[in-house]
Specification:
GO terms for molecular function: carboxy-lyase activity; pyridoxal phosphate binding. Its cofactor is pyridoxal 5'-phosphate. This is HDC protein. Belongs to the group II decarboxylase family. The longest helix is centred in the C-terminal third of the chain and has 23 residues, at 518-540. 40% of the residues are buried. Strands 14-20-19-18-17-15-16 form a seven-stranded mixed β-sheet, sandwiched between helices. The protein is of the alpha+beta class and 632 residues long. The protein has 17 helices and 25 strands.
Length: 632
């Protein structure tokens, strides 16, 4: 029997005719179907007949269709879901600057110099002359009071009281007096000198996946708990790590991308989506002085961007896998840890990694780099890649790219620039000189989810010679795509990265740039540079404080001449009430308190409050009356 032409068989014709007829009567059909196949065993051919039964039930199909159509939302349903989701977002953002940047704690009232930064009663949701209301049963506040719907929040000038299961914008949230913050069971309790946390599994477990769905209200109520149990990187007092931020247009961009849901990695599928991505890549390339022949892609982050660049470097400089074990990668001691991590993913775990010391300005020491390379060449090793950083994560220092480029050229090495944190400061006129030589790099990694305030999961890779990138990633389509119309002249994103079926990331970057304009982002980044300089100058004049002059927006400071434990005690004193979140780092064996000013919500009044906290913390520590005014 020819199973590929089943409609030609008598009993199949009966079924096919009935299914395709308009007046098809609902019935159950069962047909015996003999299939015959053959195979050879020990030069003998055996015939095997298999009997099977094909069953069709129209009533069952109808039930499946009715259930599946639940996924096809109506305009009214979409509007309702969006309205309710936006209500949750608004409630979270309105309280964002009032809460602890790591969640769980509402800080006490602060002062800025002689002026009150926060007046009594302002720790409620307040907007407009005297009142804000956000959606039905949600939040309503006057000058000294906030009141929400059932089981929500009611507060007076200096206190917040929550009804069962919910307060502010999430459940089990906060009850607060002048010197105390208390949340739901086993959550957080904080006094002036203490922050204690412990989360029970019943409070952090998300709504389970169930056989039957629940209401959008229940889903959103459960999701909004995340705002109470997260590190709030958009908080103006979040000055740790490299905080991520996101704007409203970026969120709308993600919504549009998910709703239209184009396959954005191939011109044949959606030319406009590809053009949007290419426009972003080429614009960033021009920022760094790359030629139009460059190519790149939006990625899930800086590590993946670096991995794509390193793959291209490997294929171009070390084409034979037998040489991987003698290949050498050169980093500075302050290079981001994600770079070395990529070697394992690239199958180069056995490659040699050299960490080059930094000089007194925390830049890669090029003289030591050259000595390392000379020694490796003499030992029959293969130097193939050197990574320079424009904005180290620990300090914000910038490696001397022109000098590193000269060494890389001399030894026929690939030069990659890690610009993930510092890259978009190239928009600022005052920082352009720091990026001299980057235009000569073979590849660059930069993070729009940092300097362009896109949501997490937005990196970008650039390769100066785009053909090399394409050669390392060109996709060979399977037979199922053989009818797709292709043009060799098209540079499809799927041929410029190992990713396929990736999220359409362009709108989250493009919409904010189109709506606000580049000038707004330039001003926001320039403000952070100025605030870092402002913090440096203010701390430089304080007794007992040694501070390192910033290059970008990261400031290191410490109490010199004391133990690391004393400096950690200073950190605890500054952060104990939850208004700010900073961390320590160790650079060249010295422990510092590290502040990075990067959140677009952080402004001078926030920095002034922070400076007062540092001063008050130092006074409380009762250090000897010796004036320290050090600049590192």
């Amino acid at each position: 029997m020819d199973v590929t032409n089943f409609s030609s068989q008598p009993h199949w014709r009966h079924c096919y005719r009935n299914i395709c007829t308009d007046n098809f009567v609902e019935r159950k059909h069962s047909f015996p179907s003999p299939f015959t196949t053959s195979f050879k065993t020990h030069s003998r051919t055996k015939k095997i007949t298999m009997s099977s039964e094909v069953v069709f039930n129209l009533e069952y199909l109808t039930r499946l269709e009715e259930s599946a159509r639940t996924l096809e939302s109506t305009p009214q349903q979409r509007s309702e879901m969006m309205f309710k989701a936006q209500r949750e977002v608004d409630a979270y953002l309105e309280q964002l600057s009032l809460d602890h940047p790591t969640g769980w704690v509402i800080p006490p009232k602060e002062t800025q110099g002689q002026d009150k930064l926060v007046q009594p009663g302002q720790y409620q949701v307040q907007s407009g002359p005297n009142q804000v209301q956000s959606g039905p049963d949600r939040v309503q506040s006057g000058p000294y009071q906030a009141q929400s719907g059932p089981d929500q929040v009611q507060s007076g000038p200096d206190w917040v009281q929550s009804a069962p299961d919910q307060a502010q914008s999430g459940p089990d949230r906060v009850q607060s007096g002048p010197d105390q913050v208390q949340s739901g069971p086993d959550q957080v309790q904080s006094g002036p000198d203490q922050v204690q946390s412990g989360r029970g599994p019943h409070e952090t477990e998300p709504l389970p996946i169930q056989e039957n769905g629940v209401s959008i209200d229940e889903v959103l109520r459960d999701f909004s708990r995340i705002g109470n149990e997260m590190e709030r990187e958009g908080h103006p007092g979040h000055m740790a790590y490299v905080p991520g931020n996101s704007t409203a247009p970026a969120a709308i961009g993600d919504f549009l991308a998910a709703s239209f849901n184009p396959y954005s990695l191939n011109v044949a599928s959606c030319r406009r989506a590809v053009k949007m991505q290419q426009m972003i890549v080429q614009w960033v390339g021009r920022l760094f002085g790359y030629p139009s022949a460059c190519a790149g892609n939006l990625t899930s982050g800086g590590t993946v961007a670096t991995m794509v660049a390193m793959t291209t470097a490997r294929d171009h400089k070390v084409p034979r896998s037998k040489d991987y074990s003698r290949s050498v990668l050169y980093l500075s001691e302050l290079t981001h840890d994600g770079v070395a991590k990529c070697l394992s993913t690239l199958g180069m775990r056995e490659a040699v990694v050299r960490k080059v010391p930094v000089d007194d300005k925390y830049r890669m020491d090029v003289n030591i780099l050259r000595k390392f390379i000379e020694n490796d060449v003499q030992n029959n090793l293969l130097p193939f890649l050197v990574v320079a950083t424009t904005g180290t994560t620990d300090v914000g220092s910038v490696d001397p790219v022109p000098a590193i480029r000269a060494v890389a050229t001399q030894y026929n090495m690939w030069l990659h620039v890690d610009a993930c944190y510092g890259g978009f400061f190239v928009l600022c006129n005052s920082a352009k000189h720091l990026f001299e030589g980057v235009e000569t790099a073979d590849s660059i990694a930069v993070d729009p989810h940092k300097g362009l305030y896109a949501p997490f999961g937005t990196g970008l890779v650039l390769v100066r010679n785009g053909t090399l990138l394409r050669n390392s990633n060109t996709r060979q389509h399977g037979n199922y795509m053989q009818d797709q119309l292709t043009n060799p002249e098209d540079w499809n994103p799927e041929d410029l990265t190992f990713e396929q079926s990736a999220h359409f990331r362009a709108p989250r970057v493009l919409l904010p740039l189109q709506l606000y304009g580049v000038a707004t982002f330039r001003d926001a980044l320039q403000e952070k540079l100025e605030l870092a300089k402002y913090l440096y100058l203010r701390l430089k004049g304080q007794a007992h404080i040694q501070v390192v002059e910033p290059v970008l927006s990261t400031v290191l400071f410490r109490i010199p001449g004391v133990s690391d434990n004393t400096n950690r005690a200073l950190l605890r004193e500054i952060t104990t009430d939850g208004r700010f979140f900073i961390t320590t780092t160790t650079v060249k064996g010295v422990l510092y308190l590290r502040v990075i000013i990067f959140c677009y919500r952080t402004h001078r009044q926030d920095v002034d409050v922070f400076i007062n906290k540092v001063k008050d913390a130092v006074v409380k520590m009762e250090l000897p009356e010796v004036e320290f005014c050090h600049a590192g």
